[in-house]
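Why should sequence recovery work at all? Because a backbone constrains its sequence more than one might expect. Tight turns favour small or flexible residues, buried strands favour hydrophobic ones, and helices have their own preferences. The token representation captures these environments compactly. In the example below, the structure is given first.
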């Protein structure tokens, strides 16, 4: 069933157009990189602040950066799906692709979990950052950096 879905995705009109277009594929690829930059560029400063390595108290800046991170994640996932559709059988056979997808999913779950946590709300209110929040920030940094490396490895493991 997965093979049939991947075959259908390969023959999808949008994927075929992306493969043929001189300009659209590079544009989608650049948009994917922009999404990653927004995502990681917004998450890293917040994680570093939580870890006590930089910046002012957690609060309004973190809320604003969370919106940029969410927009970056949405853009990266949407454009990533389009890029995947160009060569779905090849990507599905690539372990670096599945590693990246898994790391992005774990990173997103970690981010949503941290933002929904009581520890996050308390840190916004009184500025006290507990060990659990620091652990979550450290995990976040590792997951997102590893996802970027796994994404780059996709091209080299085809």
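From this structural description, the recovered sequence reads:
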């Amino acid at each position: 069933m997965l093979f049939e879905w991947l075959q259908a995705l390969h023959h999808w009109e949008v994927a075929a157009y992306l493969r043929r277009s001189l300009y659209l594929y590079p544009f989608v690829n650049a948009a994917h990189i922009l999404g990653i930059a927004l995502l990681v560029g917004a998450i890293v400063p917040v994680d570093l602040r939580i870890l006590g390595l930089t910046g002012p108290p957690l609060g309004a800046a973190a809320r604003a950066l969370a919106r940029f991170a969410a927009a970056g994640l949405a853009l990266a996932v949407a454009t990533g799906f389009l890029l995947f559709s160009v060569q779905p059988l090849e990507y599905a056979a690539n372990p670096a692709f599945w590693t990246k997808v898994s790391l992005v999913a774990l990173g997103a779950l970690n981010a949503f979990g941290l933002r929904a946590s009581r520890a996050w709300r308390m840190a916004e209110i009184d500025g006290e950052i507990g060990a659990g929040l620091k652990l979550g920030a450290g995990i976040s940094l590792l997951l997102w950096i590893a996802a970027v490396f796994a994404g780059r490895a996709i091209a080299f493991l085809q």
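A few observations help interpret the result. The chain has one domain: 2-156.
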